[in-house]
Amino acid sequence: MTFQDIIKSSFMEQFQTGNLGLKEVLLALGFAVIMALYLFVVYRFFVRKSMYNLHMNLAIVGMTIVTAAVILTIQSNLVLSLGMVGALSIVRYRTAVKDPMDLFFMFWAVASGIMCGANQYILNLAVTVVLTLVVFVLAQLPSTKAPYVLVVNGENAEVEDAITDILQECCSYYKVKSRNISKSSVRIIIELRAKEPKKVTDGVAKLDKVTNLSLLSYEGDVVA
Predict the structure, then answer these.
(1) Which of 62, 131, 165, 172 is the most exposed place for a label (fewest CB within 10 A)?
(2) For the packed helices 22-46 and 54-74, what is the interaxial angle rounded to 10 degrees?
(3) Rounded CA separation 198/209 (Å)
(4) pTM of the model
(5) Coil, strand or helix: which one is 179?
């Protein structure tokens, strides 16, 4: 037997097909179900009600259990693991993730499923506790107050000067994001921050050349 044969034999012995017992399989899948249900509750608690998606939450539950099952399948089998990698590499997902928190929980579900399938239960519990505490603490930190968007329709462009005078008096910050002018009307979109937004709307509504207005609260960037 040559040295190359010894290396090949030693390498392959580490990846012989392992026969998992029923007890190990049920324990891994049972723990994966528990972690999946925990993620279901945590996702429901942290995600904003307006952005909550039941189908996404159910997908996170299924992703945890399926990942654990995949890891159990390819465990201690080099040939099967390589075949699984090749099969999964051709799968492409085109569904857009609207909320970054969804992406975070998807990675959390995959990581939890991998640790369950690899029988790393203590590590899984430790990671779960740390992530829960970190997300909970950071979620309690005070955030800046959401700005407002003021949409004003007026008879002509001269109304902008009167609106600016009111904004200078009532707002700590304002910026014109859009200005559409025609021969008979003008439409102005302004981003602003104000402690008392009602004063802004009351003042602008009293202007003679203002036909209608809307004040919207939003989170995120404004597209001009």
Answers:
(1) 172
(2) 150
(3) 19
(4) 0.62
(5) strand
